[in-house]
Specification:
F-box domain-containing protein; 12-stranded parallel sheet; about 400 residues; Monooxygenase; 14 helices; alpha/beta
Length: about 400
């Protein structure tokens, strides 16, 4: 007697598989395994283009597959594409995009091309992709002269939006009718962020922005956008660079996570943390009284001999050891009663550098010692963790975006 396996069990089995070979084998097992296996196999796809080439073979292969098996397009949920510079390849990309109507995440690398130079059909296909009811996350990289109307439409439609090296053009008086959907905004490039905020002032009227990632700028535009969403922000990520500009955060009554990334300075064979970091930590109870997690990433340059951290540097404010009462818990006396964890990470300024060598290993060991000395009370209460940052992809900017 044949036993019929419930489809729910089959779906659960396939959901537990990650290896491509296992999924391919499952798809050949029985008809009931085909759809869930193909759904997993084609859920996340990238169509990349070598900017030194006049052809885009990955696009041609994708189109050939989709023409042979049209149903595969409906399985693609996360798509990352490069926009080729040649009209013929752009037309192939149009045909590929037209088959994918269930996208949830879309990443686009425009390779610094002007929006007006794209073939009209590709612009229409991209706009249709942004308009998909299923799309929740949109990431744009290196797109020039993007109409503000496109950004406005995206900000009104998706829940997660990132713009890196994106320039916008259009009238300044466009208003955001519905800013409730956008909960995460990522603006990592200081080269264009100021211009974006000048032109796209609807970013300052987002009503439900909970997560913001932005670079600190001497112009102060980072503070402008932080202040505009100060009541709703829950997670704030700041790239402080050399941290030459004081942070001066506004009151953030609902902030739970603050992540700071900064570059260290080296003088006379000593590694110093910026003084603005100490003042920022000292002000945490004032602007973020409900803070639960503090993340600190320190970027170091590539060096053959890593200098030692300044041994004379005092502990951060709020985290000094209470010598008069060493048994008193930091959390009992802290002005940050909700603080549960402090994570400190070390990484190279250039993510592609090898971090397995002896020099980075020594640097990490010294970094651990230095951070324990900077956060002695947190270290004693075991809310401090120190180590290497997660290694980022050498080639895929989109990989670590939500």
């Amino acid at each position: 007697t044949l036993v019929t396996v419930p489809q729910e069990l089959i779906d659960a089995i396939v959901a537990g598989l990650e290896a491509k070979g296992d999924l391919e084998a499952c798809s050949l097992t029985a008809r009931s395994f085909v759809t869930p296996s193909q759904s997993a196999l084609f859920r996340k796809k990238s169509l990349r283009w070598d900017s030194s080439s006049r052809i885009a073979p990955a696009f041609e292969r994708a189109l050939s597959l989709l023409e042979q098996f049209p149903h595969i397009g409906c399985h693609v949920r996360e798509l990352t594409i490069d926009i080729p510079k040649f009209p013929a390849s752009q037309s192939i990309l149009v045909a590929v995009l037209r088959t994918m109507n269930n996208l949830e995440r879309l990443g686009i690398n425009g390779h610094a091309q002007d929006w007006d130079n794209l073939v009209p059909e590709l612009k229409d296909a991209i706009l249709d992709g942004i308009s998909l009811p299923s799309l929740r996350r949109l990431h744009l990289l290196r797109v020039s002269s993007l109409p503000i109307s496109v950004l406005l439409h995206a900000a009104s439609s998706v829940g997660v939006l990132s713009l890196n090296l994106v320039t916008a053009l259009g009238p300044h008086d466009i208003s955001l009718n519905d800013g409730d959907n956008l909960g995460t905004l990522i603006l990592p490039s200081c080269l264009t962020t100021s211009a974006l905020l000048h032109v796209c002032d609807f970013f300052l009227r987002l009503r439900n922005l909970q997560r913001l990632s932005i670079e600190i700028q001497s112009s102060g535009y980072h503070r402008t956008i932080i202040t505009s969403s100060s009541q709703s922000l829950v997670h704030l990520e700041l790239d402080c660079g050399a941290f030459l500009t004081p942070l001066d955060l506004p009151p953030l009554p609902n902030l739970q996570t603050l992540s700071l990334s900064l570059a260290k300075a080296v003088d006379n064979n000593r590694s110093h943390l910026p003084t603005n970091l100490s003042s920022t930590i000292a002000s945490l109870p004032t602007h973020s009284p409900l803070l639960q997690r503090l993340n600190l990433t320190v970027c170091v340059p590539r060096v053959e001999q890593n200098p030692v951290w300044d041994p004379e540097s005092p502990p951060f404010p709020l985290f000094q050891q209470n010598n008069s009462s060493p048994s008193t818990s930091y959390k009992d006396q802290s002005a940050l009663p909700c603080l549960r964890s402090i994570h400190c990470h070390l990484e190279y300024s250039e993510p592609s550098l090898d971090r397995t060598g002896i020099y980075f290993g020594r640097a990490t060991t010294r970094f651990v010692e230095a951070m324990r000395a900077k956060f002695p009370a947190a270290d004693r209460d075991r809310i401090l963790s120190v180590g290497r940052a997660e290694r980022k992809s050498k080639i895929d900017y989109f990989e670590h975006l939500p």
